[in-house]
Every structure is written in structure tokens, then in C-alpha cells.
Predict the structure.
Amino acid sequence: MAKLAFHAISGMVALCSVTSAQAEVTDTAANGFTVQHQTEIAGNSDAVWKALIAPSRYWNADHSWTGNAENFYLVPQAGGCFCELIRTISADNIKSSDGSVQHMRVIYAHNGKMLRMSGALGPLQGEAVTGTLTIQLQPQGDATVVRFTYKVGGYMEFPVDQIAPAVDGVIGEQLDRLAALFGDPGAADAGLQDDAVEQIDDGASDIDEKSDPG
């Protein structure tokens, strides 16, 4: 997340969510905070997982360093990177790009169940803090309950009472955008799910090309 990611520090991010069942700053301290969002997504856990690991499909480009969500990619295995290429042309890959940015590093990945990443997002990257984002998927009939929990702790110059609500808004937005790929939970059907999976698979092939070092 880049310079645009946390405009809420001065104006605060308004959380405009129609899907999040839970959304709040759940804990604060002098040196950190926790935010948590949960929603039910109208797709099975396999489809939701495929969407989750394709951030270019849903992560808002306003929260990137390049302003282009197509530059995002994620390697869903321990040590893998949720990264962003700094490219001159769309064909640039890791070797030919002008550079890259690590948003987070994968520290736990269990297909269809949980993804945990470590990283200080946006302007927090320049602070002496650690951020841990845990994403849990729980099947609920034909749908999936997804929970985002982001914990931040350490030294930072941002006042916690200002940065915590800003981060809360940004994290909640990404979960809402992920859910939006599948439509409203009550409208889920096989056709909608198949279309979503097809779109995700198309996006995944683009990500593979971006992360190819050759």
C-alpha cells in the first residue's frame, strides 16, 4: 500500500461495507493495535482460496506503490511473497522491472483454510513495527466465512488512535472487494461460482507470467 493507502490519517477512512458482519478495531495499546473483519462469501472454500491468492483481482490499486493492481502477485507458500513489481511496460518481469516492493511475506499457508502473512503495510513499512495478517476460511454450506485479523505492534511515530481506524478501513475494504467477486451470499449459484473461478484462473496465469524470473 502506497502513499494513497492511508489518507484516513488526516480525513479517516469511512468503512462503506454491506457485507462485513464484523468490522472493528478490537484492541489498542500504546505500541500497537488489532483490527478484525469477517464476512460470508458466496463461494466454496476452494474458489475463495483461488481468489484470495490472486490479489490483482481484488486488492485496490489505491493501496499500491505503482497505482496498478496488475503489478501485484502472491506466492502462497511459506517464505512466498505478496509483492508488487515496479514496471516500465506490462511485459516486465522480476529481472527486467525497475524494481519491486514486498507488502507481506507468507509464513503459513494451508490451501482452502488459512493464509498468514507478516508485513507492515503502507506507511507502516517505514516504521519499526511488525504486522501479522491472518486470513481464515471456514466452509458454511455452499458459502465460506472469511475472517481477516491484522495485528500491528512496535515503535511508530503515528498516533495509534489515528492510524488504527485508518488501517481498519483499508483491511475491511480488501475483504469487501474479495467478497464482491462472488456477489451477494444469498445469490450464490453454480453459474456465478464457475464464472468467478474462470476469472480467477485467468488472473492467476497473468500473475505467473509476472513472477517468472526468466
